[in-house]
Design a protein that fits this description.
The chain is of the alpha/beta class and 720 residues long. Helices cover 12% and strands 26% of the residues. It has a 17-stranded parallel sheet, with no helix packed on it. The protein has a 16-stranded mixed sheet with strand order 15-16-17-19-21-23-25-27-29-31-33-35-37-39-41-43, with no helix packed on it. α2 (614-623) crosses α4. The longest helix has 57 residues, at 663-719. The radius of gyration is 58 Å and the shape is elongated.
Length: 720
């Protein structure tokens, strides 16, 4: 709730007011005060309630409460208070309650009550209008009355002069005035010639007071160039011509050959004609009565040039300085050391061959340092420079800041382009721009702590490890983003948020909360990835490469870690698919059942189609050596069987290399061989059927012959 200021919201003044159109004083006075809300001067409309009491606390109220609203500006308000005839000559206290803004909440009393001082009691004076109320003897004596203060208009009609001690019994009668006055009372006038020079103060009558036009001068006193004493009425003066200070020059005398003319000179010879001094004295030019240019010779042909405000100054004993202008009485421009320059502005200082172009409160304190302008900038390092902005500090030798606010370039050749609150401390450190991510936190700006570090922009980024040793994390780079850190030597964070490249030559391309801590580790982006060992790669989401040389990619459905050193691990819950060329050849893995690989067999993809001679292919296949073996990278116990790529290529001349056996070529040879074997099997089956049929026929014929033979043999035996 609102409360009065402890020091200001007191009764500032109570004055009598006239009501417009009324002929007498009313019961209103003006109350002025100050009110605060939550310790801050209030702005708006407040509602006030006033009451008048006979005691500072408790007591009896005189009159009734009154409520009124007033506009409060920066805590100050003024309001009219009606006393309701509350004054009878005794002490009164004003009780105030308020609610701000108007109409909100309940009234809160402003303690303590304010004692009403003398001015409001003047209301009581209007009631003392008759002599009956002045019943004291000797209350008013002549010292309290000004001469002529009591007139017949002042005394009410019918009041006897006997009421006034020592007064005459009656007013002076009317009649003719005398002495210096003419006419009759009560309005006499001055008599002619009654006023002489004795009654007129010197200089009180001017020409405008005269009723005639001034005429001939009747008195002349001789001055410089004139001979003769005071002349009245008539006479003559003689003129002395010459070159002394008490002589005059003839009217046709011409100085144009030796003096500088207001309208300009002609025929000037720069080798001999000049405006200035011949001795070691300074030359000062004033305008408006104040010095505006000082040319102060300092010896050796050098001159200190100080222009602008009269308070602009060059430190005593320095040489070759220039102050071009600007400055004022409280903020002068100053040249502090030899050959310093301040071109203008105000409150600027230049030291040791330094220069300030303008602006306000800028300092070029380093040797040959420069501040072009802006506000409260400082170039402290030797040959450092600040282009502008506010509160920037180029502290390193040859450091430079283009602009922005509150930036610091502290290292040799450090550069800050702009932004806010950026710090480049290492040698050759660079921050292009960006700045604080939290206006209230100066530590949320960009910082380059180590040599050759670079930050392109963004906010709260760090290039370097800030260990205090500026050359143990050299060449770190953060291109942009926010809250990123490149702390390893030659490490890089391209962007994103809250990423870290901590390893030597580690890289994070972007994303969020990624950490590349291993040497030469890489994270292209994603979220919550880590590449912790040397030469590792982690990508996607929640991928963690913890073994040297490991490659891990994760779809983020779960934590995915590396398998072993130099391993390839990928999590793709939707399956894998590899398309190997523009012909549509691909391999895919949809489940743990295994890979499915297929070459593109669309006829439209193929040309130079030729039939395969199966018998010839079988002959070649018969010549193809097939061995059992293991890869050198595997344990010898892991065995494989198959041809060598060189033998396969030599026999069949298939594929583009003699070091690889394409699955489509191996499958083609196998299919062609199977087809040829199938043809051979069919031919052999047909031949077998023919032979079986022939054999059956032969067996039938043999059985018939055998039966016939048996029958003949039986008949022969019977005949015997």
């Amino acid at each position: 709730m609102s409360r009065p200021s402890s020091t200001i919201a007191t009764l500032l003044g109570i004055v009598l007011c006239w009501v417009a159109g009324a002929s007498a004083l009313n019961d209103v006075f003006t109350y002025q005060g100050e009110i605060e809300k939550d310790g801050v001067p209030f702005d708006g409309v407040c509602e006030f309630r006033f009451g008048i009491f006979d005691s500072p606390s408790g007591g009896t109220q005189t009159g009734v409460d009154q409520t009124a609203s007033a506009t409060v500006s920066r805590g100050l308000f003024s309001i009219l208070v009606n006393t309701n005839d509350a004054f009878d000559g005794t002490t009164r206290y004003l009780q105030i309650a308020a609610r701000c803004p108007s109409g909100s909440g309940s009234f809160v009393s402003l303690e303590p009550r304010q004692q009403l001082t003398a001015a409001p009691y003047a209301f009581f004076a209007r009631e003392a209008g008759s002599s009956a109320e002045i019943d004291c003897v000797g209350c008013i004596s002549s010292p309290e009355l000004a001469d002529g203060a009591v007139t017949d208009q002042t005394v009410a009609a019918g009041i006897s002069y006997s009421k006034l001690t020592g007064a005459p019994t009656a007013l002076p009668p009317t009649g003719v005035a005398g002495g210096s006055l003419v006419g009759s009372y009560p309005n006499p006038a001055l008599a002619p010639a009654a006023v002489s020079s004795v009654e007129i103060a010197d200089g009180s009558i001017t020409e405008s007071d005269l009723s005639f036009t001034p005429g001939t001068v009747r008195s002349v006193t001789a001055g410089a160039g004139l001979d003769g004493g005071t002349i009245t009425q008539s006479g003559s003066l003689s003129v002395r011509f010459g070159t002394s200070s008490d002589s005059a020059a003839p009217g046709d005398h011409d100085h144009s050959g030796t003096a500088w003319q207001v309208g300009g000179n002609i025929g000037i010879d720069p080798s001999t004609d000049f405006l200035g001094t011949l001795g070691p004295q300074a030359l000062e030019l004033r305008t408006g009565g104040f010095r505006s240019l000082l040319l102060d010779p300092t010896g050796g042909g050098t001159v200190n040039y100080v222009a602008g405000a009269a308070d602009n100054a060059a430190t005593a004993g320095i040489v070759g300085v220039t102050i071009g202008g600007g400055g004022n009485g409280t903020e002068p421009n100053q040249a502090r050391s030899d050959y310093a320059t301040v071109a203008g502005g105000r409150g600027n200082q230049a030291w040791m061959d330094g220069a300030v172009g303008g602006g306000r409160g800028n300092d070029a304190t380093g040797l040959a340092a420069t501040v072009a302008g802006g506000l409260s900038n400082e170039a402290m390092g030797e040959s450092s420079a600040v282009g502008g902005g506010s509160g920037n500090l180029a502290g390193g030798e040859l450091a430079s800041i283009g602009g922005g606010a509150d930036n610091q370039a502290g290292g040799l050749f450090g550069v800050i382009g702009g932004g806010q609150g950026n710090v480049a401390m290492g040698m050759y450190a660079t921050i292009s721009g960006g700045g604080r991510t939290d206006e209230m936190n100066p530590d949320s700006s960009n910082r380059v702590t180590d040599d050759y570090g670079t930050i392109g922009g963004g906010g709260d980024n760090t290039a370097g490890n800030d260990s205090g040793n500026p050359d143990d994390a050299v060449g770190a780079t953060v291109c942009g983003g926010g809250s990123n850190t490149a702390a390893g030597p030659h490490s890089t964070v391209a962007g994103g948020f809250f990423n870290g490249a901590l390893g030597d030559q580690a890289t994070v391309g972007g994303g969020t909360i990624n950490l590349a801590s291993g040497p030469q580790s890489t994270i292209p982006g994603g979220i919550l990835n880590s590449a912790e060992a040397a030469v590792t790669f982690a990508a996607g989401a929640n991928a963690h490469a913890t073994h040297p040389g490991a490659f891990v990619w994760s779809d983020g459905t779960n934590f995915t870690g590396s398998l072993a050193a130099n391993s390839f691990t990928a999590r793709a819950s939707g399956g894998f698919r590899f398309i190997v060329n523009g012909n549509g050849d691909e391999c895919s893995l949809g489940s743990a059942a295994g890979w499915v690989c297929g070459g593109a067999s669309d006829r439209d993809f193929k040309e130079n189609v030729a039939e395969v001679e199966g018998a010839e292919l079988l002959d070649k296949l018969a010549d193809l050596p097939v061995h059992s073996w293991n890869y050198k990278s595997e344990d010898p116990s892991i065995r494989h069987i198959g041809p060598m790529a060189q033998d396969f290529h030599s026999v069949f001349r298939l594929g583009a290399s003699d070091r690889l056996i394409g699955t489509i070529d191996a499958d083609g040879v196998a299919l062609a061989a199977i087809k040829e074997l199938h043809r051979i099997a069919l031919d052999q089956a047909a031949e077998l059927r023919r032979l079986n049929e022939r054999n059956a026929d032969l067996e039938l014929r043999l059985a018939t012959i055998e039966a016939y033979a048996e029958s003949r043999q039986g008949g022969a035996e019977a005949s015997q």
